[in-house]
Amino acid sequence: MKATRNSTILGLVLLFMSILTGSGLLAQTPAPPPPPGQVYGPNDTLIVPAFVYNGETLPARTLEYVYVTAPMPEAMRKRYAKWTRLRNAVYVTYPYARRAGAIINEINARLATLPNERARKQYLLSREKELKKEFTEPLTKLSVYQGRVLMKLINRQTGNNCYELVKEYKGGFTARFWQTVAFFFGSSLKQPYDVHNEDREIELIVLEVEKMYR
Fold first, then answer.
1. Disulfide-capable partner of 198 in 93, 164, 170, 194 (CB 3.0 to 4.6 Å)?
2. Where are the domains of the chain?
3. What is the pTM of this model?
4. Environment class of residue 2 by beta-carbon count within 10 Å: exposed (0-12), middle (13-18) or buried (19+)?
């Protein structure tokens, strides 16, 4: 009877100790010390990047880039295609316009020094052969659209439209003939260059080209 009672008391003591241990009322095994240079706070410490804003240090985090795409609207697609076509035409033709403008300005300066009409014609004939040799092959590869852009750029470089230039160098009949040819191709030798309105986009692209290849 006594042995049974002692066993019961021992069992109750062990049960009580296990309850105390599980609830943290008895001493627990101490946590391992933190690594060198790292200090734990009351509930441990989570190290994150931070930045100072208005004198207050705030946690910060750099998120990964997220790219959002959507189908381009039809109107924007057409606008972009039109701009790309114009930009390509300017990039192709601007070197020719720049070269032609320099030559035309040089010719005009030279003509002003010649004594008579015969000397002017001989000089123009010699320069015409030179220009045909330099420009005929590359210019025949241009499309009609690129040709229209080229005429505008020549006007930009010289201050004169192509009709005036042809009339000055080859006469009124030749100028009218090529104006008729240009008309059938949906173009005109008399195209103006309006940098503030109609041709503003061309001017922006030209400035881009000049900045890139200056």
1. 194
2. 90-213
3. 0.58
4. exposed
**What's the one-letter identity of residue 114?**
L
Neighbouring C-beta atoms of residue 158, cutoff 10 Å: 20
Low-confidence ranges of the chain (pLDDT < 70): 1-45, 163, 165-166, 168-188, 214
Asked if 155 and 193 touch (Cβ cutoff 8 Å), the reply is yes
CB distance 149 to 90 below 8 Å? yes
Can you tell me whether residue 193 is helix, strand or coil?
coil
pLDDT digits (tens, 9 = 90+) for 166-205: 676 666 655 665 556 565 556 667 778 888 888 899 999 9
Burial label, 123 (beta-carbon count in 10 A; 0-12, 13-18, 19+):
middle
